[in-house]
Amino acid sequence: MRKFLQTVAVGLAAASFLVWLALGSNVIWTRTSVTKWQKDPVTEIEGPVIEKKFVPGIDLLVLGLAGALALFVGSLFLSKTENKSVGSS
User: Fold this and answer.
1) How many angstroms separate the Cα of 64 from the Cα of each of 25, 72, 85?
2) For residue 56, how many other CB atoms are within 10 A of its CB?
3) pLDDT tens digits for 19-54?
């Protein structure tokens, strides 16, 4: 069980980091909208356009890594060997 929890912890840390990188690796807080400047085709004046887009921030990366660390530390409190009962037959 100890080895399993440690493997899950490493997998969670790697997955958190890879998802954070793949979705934008934003070093500020998580955002659900992004502001872009576009030129209006009629007036040719630039103005802000808000698009709904999920950009994970450093807070989600820290939560994933904290969860992985909690699993890893929790695994250290488990015994290394499993208790197996031997039958007397």
Assistant:
1) 14, 12, 37
2) 20
3) 989 888 788 888 888 889 999 888 888 999 999 988
